[in-house]
Amino acid sequence: MQDFTFKVPQSIEFGLGSLKKLPGILKENKSEHVFLISDEGLAKLGVVKKIQDIIETDGLTCTVYLGVVPNPTVDVVNDATKNYQESGATSIVAIGGGSAMDVAKTTGVLATYSGEITDYEGLHKVPGPIVPIIAVPTTAGTGSEVSASAVITDEARNYKMSVISHEMLPKYAVLDPDMIMTAPASIAAACGIDALIHAMEAYLSRNASPFTDAMAEKAMALIGPNLRQFVANRQDKEAACAMMVGSTFAGMSFAWAKLGDIHAMSHPLSAYFHVVHGVANAILLPTILEYNMIADRGRYEKIYNYIRTSAQPAANFEPEMLVDEVKKLSAALGMPTTLSEVGVTEDKFQEMAEDAMKSPNIAVNPRLTTIKDVIALYQKAL
User: Fold this and answer.
1) Number of domains the chain contains
2) How far is CA 211 from CA 4, 8, 88, 175, 328, in A?
3) 64, containing H or E segment
């Protein structure tokens, strides 16, 4: 067993209606003025106003910023930082999925230490604590509320860069399953399979530890039996609760174990072809699992038993059975099965592979991977 470090330096509130605890959390942190980061879509659905009212009816001040977009850019981070500094707020509430939380984390970095967000690209370049962040996820998928990374698109390089530091972890995560029970089926499916892949890749990572394994296994135990049911009926409270908590456990796991080739290769797909992150992961999943089979040390069977529809453990398991099972799962969720279906073309594979190789996730993939391997995997998934 290799050496490892693990800590959970956050407070996590879970429960139906737990949003009502927000004012108490803010007062506990002596924050009378909060900067609320979200997007226009959630504002139109009334989610932003609902949370703003909860905060303001308790006598606190709330400045709303709705500039978040999918695959947020360096310009969005700069704009959010400027608005935060002008507002006079002393804390941030991030409402949404990974995009809102990535903007909140990176805004917190620049508001505290200034500079350009590209100065902090890579591992552990944030020098210390940042603005307190309270994360309120509206999807069960990204795990960003408990992860130490932020992914921001640098349009100057056409590259999705990662800023990774445990100093960026939100101080609080408020997990209210009410927030995910009105999601469209397509979003529930894409986010849900992303959460499952977070747990799977963390579990297979060469950087895994007994602590991350415990989180990953519990995530798969919660998500595996509930993902199909949640996509079928988002009003199913038990399934919604399981997905919300499972996504958070998966986020804790990959915050420390990192991920693998799937995530390393999916980020360029979003940067070059604007493929939805969860969809890109779902398409790559069977291809990468097949590639990694020769490095399996018995974990494929455990994953298979977590996600298959039958409650009985498999007899005479072979790793190919897991590949077949994830294909069935993707089909049940209505996921595309090839990259060509989502508009990806072969002419960008070299550039995409070069970008994928810069990801720290490549280094912990269970099977060693070269740039030629990445190009071949893209071609196979095409």
Assistant:
1) 2
2) 9, 11, 39, 22, 30
3) strand 61-65
Residues 369 and 251 in one domain: yes
CATH code of 158's domain: 3.40.50.1970
Residue range(s) defining the domain that contains residue 353: 185-381
Residue 5 lies in a domain: no
Q: 113, 148, 179 — which closes off a domain? A: 179
- Does 126 score more than 80 pLDDT? yes
Quick: pLDDT tens for 150-169.
Answer: 989 988 887 888 899 989 99
Q: Which residues contact 101 (CB under 8 A, 6 or more apart)?
A: 94, 133, 135, 137, 142, 144, 145, 150, 170
> Of the candidates 256, 299, 254, 204, which has an alpha carbon nearest to the alpha carbon of residue 4?
256
Q: What is the pLDDT of residues 207-232, one digit of tens each?
A: 999 999 999 999 999 999 999 999 99
